[in-house]
Amino acid sequence: MAEKKKKIVVVGGGIMGISSAYILQQTGLYDVTIFTESLSPNRLASDIGGAIIRPGYLGETDKDKILSWSADTFAFLQRIIYENKDAGIHEALQAVSCYEYFQEPLQPWPFWSHIVNGFRNLEPHELPHHWDCAGGWFYTSFIIEGRRYLPYLLDKFKRLGGGVELCTINSFAHVREVVPHCSLIVNCTGLYGLVDEMTDPELRPARGVTIQVHAPWVKHAYGDYCNVENPTYIYPRADHLILGGTYELGRGTDDGEPTTQEVQNVIARCSKMIPGLSNSRVLDVRAGSRPYRKEVRLELQTPSDVNALPVIHNYGHGGAGWTVHFGCAHEVAKLAVEYLNPELSLSKL
């Protein structure tokens, strides 16, 4: 008789929760269920972000970890976009040419330059001449649309036998009550943590404002990230263009919807980069909260007593959750296998 699979509960239905659940279910070792209050496209933080694959906004997280997680994610996305025959994924995920500008003299290449494809300095004739720009970079990366990609990944998870429960989980102890034979919890709740356990003083909201406009003639991505609190970016998607943005550390969605002044400021900054955007039709305006932490928390918390469950924490990815989601999910699975099945190696599964 085959050994009964151990049960794992993933709490959180954003990109970290779904990707972690998918990789865990894919091992074939576990019976994985996602517990979440809502799923995309119900304006989750994962739905609202610009979602370009570009390492950044990860605080003091170790650079080697960032590189490893980012490289795993980039390779995964590159594989599915070029090998997948499902037309739907090509609306959710696009390879794009990226032009990144800065107003200071030529900058040293970022530590992540080898992760993306074709990274190089922009030639002088490639720089915009209608505004003050001292230099820039060119590379090819990916842009993800959360409201399309999350259901795609969730469907892959379900096809492997994974389950989803739409409910409110109040504490880790509550998980044990709902799933008595649970062997492990994966905490991917981001800012909306479990009240009893998630009193993490390092976790803070970082409010972001994005605008969707109709501008089908813009085919490339453009960005100026020198101003950390007010990064300017323009990202093409299947049926609209994303304009951004803001990075207001300490402010969240509780501070209300974007004001007219905030919207006008973002449009003005993006229009300085591409003047024709000033007259583009606005389709939607959104504000979301990124789960910022000085350092990403991705670790196993072993039980403190016989009644407690082991917990793998996977949260605090700031504005780079999309960039590292697959790499972090793979590390979650590695930690789970090392704890629950120490005789096995994830690389051999």
What does this structure look like?
The chain is an alpha/beta fold. The protein has helices spanning 15-26, 45-48, 63-83, 89-92, 146-159, 172-178, 260-273, 321-340, and strands at 6-11, 30-36, 93-102, 117-121, 135-144, 163-166, 182-187, 203-214, 221-224, 232-236, 241-244, 248-249, 281-301, 311-317. Helix 1 (15-26) packs parallel to helix 5 and helix 1 (15-26) packs across helix 8 (321-340). The longest helix is centred in the first third of the chain and has 21 residues, at 63-83.
Low-confidence stretches: none
Average pLDDT over all residues: 88
Helix and strand string, N-terminal first?
EHEHHHEEEHEHEEEEEEHEEH
Strand content: 25-35%
| Structure classification | alpha/beta
Overall geometric form = globular
Q: How would you sum up the major sheet?
A: 14 strands, mixed
Rg is 21 Å
Task: Give the tally of β-strands.
Answer: 14
| Percent helix | 25-40%
Termini separation (Å)?
21 Å
SS field, number of helical segments: 8
